[in-house]
Structures are given as structure tokens and as C-alpha cells.
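User: Please fill in residues for this 218-position structure.
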């Protein structure tokens, strides 16, 4: 089964509409990921259907939320790895200003290669590790990550980079409630407000995913 067939089936199940050009970009991205994964460990091994669901479709569950935000708000993806979710979202929405923060040089090389291959505008790779004491040279109205850290540690890293009213979108699995409880008992409870929790079910495995959305106070 082709990437396009799998992707369209998953998108239909998630009720997400993408045009043909976006689907083509995502499948070219998938092809480059498969090619580079033969030489380096970019994502966990699996068949095409599993990889597309686990990484591409999971990332794209954020699209409805992003479509409700101002078009010029830049997205920062911290610990982007092989580009999830930031690069997948950029393929779906090429007009979205995007920064991918990734400290590992081999992954930086991969990200830059895909960006060049797809000729994506308005996207940069920041080859740095983002930590709580990171000097904030810029601020980002939208910040996300798939596997950077637990919620309290992630919010601590985001604090200097998030402007007042900025959104921090935590992509989580079933244990998100434990992390929210830890956040409520931390100093960060006064600095971020818990907005919404959106639930999504992945289309093939049925696994539940959660977008836990915080807003920076101030």
C-alpha cells in the first residue's frame, strides 16, 4: 500500500482535509525518512503504516488547533528529532512560520536536507538544546514538542521563549494527568494557565493522544 493511500485513509479517519500538494510533500518527506533511516536511527522501526500513523498522522492532529491561530504566529518545535511534529505540520501548511530546535547534528543534517528537497519557505533549524536557562533571543507564540520532557520540565524550558498569552502545546499519551498534577504542585502553576485538553484517537491502532494546551500568564 502506498504512502498516499495510507495517509489519505488516516486523514479521512481524523477528519482532516489536506490538498494534493500537501499530501505529495508529506509522502516525499516519508520517502526521505525511509532512505535516511537505513543509515541512521531516526525513528523506531516499523512497517510503513505504523510509521505514518505514529509520526505523521500523530503530528497532524495538531492542524485543527493551528488553523484557529493567527497565520503569522511562528511555531517552535523543541527537540524536533526527525521533524515531528514541526516539519510534518510545515509540509501540511507551508505558510506556517516554523523553527525546529534540534541539537543532534545528524538529525540537523536530515532536517535541512528535507527542507531543501521540498523547497519549503519560512522554516529554520536551530541546532541548539533548549533548557530552562536558555538565553531567549526570540519569542514564539506557539511552542510544542512530542517527546522533549514531562509537562513541568517542558514548561520550564518554554518560559523564557513564550510571550504573554503564548500557547504551549504538549503532545501526550495516557499518563498526561499525572504530569498535570505535578505541574499544579510546581512554581510554574502561577506562570502558565491550563487552557484545554483535546483528545484524539489514532486511526489504525486506536491509541489515544492528548494535546494539553497551556497559555503563558502575564
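Assistant: Residues filled in for all 218 positions:
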Amino acid at each position: 500500500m502506498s504512502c498516499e493511500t495510507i495517509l489519505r485513509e488516516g486523514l479521512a479517519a481524523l477528519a482532516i482535509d489536506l490538498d494534493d500538494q500537501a499530501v505529495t510533500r508529506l509522502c516525499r518527506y516519508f520517502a526521505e525518512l525511509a532512505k535516511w533511516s537505513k543509515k541512521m536511527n531516526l525513528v523506531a522501526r516499523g512497517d510503513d503504516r505504523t510509521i505514518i500513523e505514529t509520526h505523521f498522522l500523530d503530528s497532524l492532529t495538531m492542524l485543527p488547533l493551528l488553523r484557529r491561530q493567527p497565520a503569522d504566529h511562528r511555531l517552535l518545535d523543541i527537540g524536533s528529532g526527525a521533524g515531528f511534529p514541526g516539519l510534518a505540520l510545515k509540509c501540511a501548511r507551508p505558510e506556517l512560520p516554523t523553527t525546529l530546535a534540534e541539537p543532534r547534528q545528524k538529525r540537523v543534517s536530515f532536517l535541512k536536507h528535507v527542507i531543501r528537497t521540498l523547497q519549503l519557505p519560512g522554516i529554520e533549524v536551530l541546532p541548539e538544546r533548549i533548557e530552562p536557562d536558555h538565553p531567549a533571543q526570540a519569542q514564539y507564540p506557539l511552542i510544542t514538542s512530542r517527546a522533549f520532557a514531562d509537562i513541568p520540565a517542558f514548561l520550564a524550558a518554554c518560559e523564557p521563549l513564550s510571550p504573554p498569552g503564548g500557547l504551549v502545546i504538549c503532545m501526550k499519551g495516557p499518563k498526561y494527568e499525572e504530569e498535570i498534577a505535578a505541574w499544579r504542585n510546581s512554581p510554574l502553576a502561577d506562570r502558565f494557565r491550563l487552557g484545554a485538553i483535546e483528545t484524539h484517537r489514532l486511526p489504525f491502532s486506536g491509541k489515544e493522544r492528548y494535546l494539553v494546551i497551556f497559555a503563558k500568564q502575564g
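For context: The beta strands are 75-78, 98-101, 123-126, 142-145, 167-172, 192-201, 208-216.
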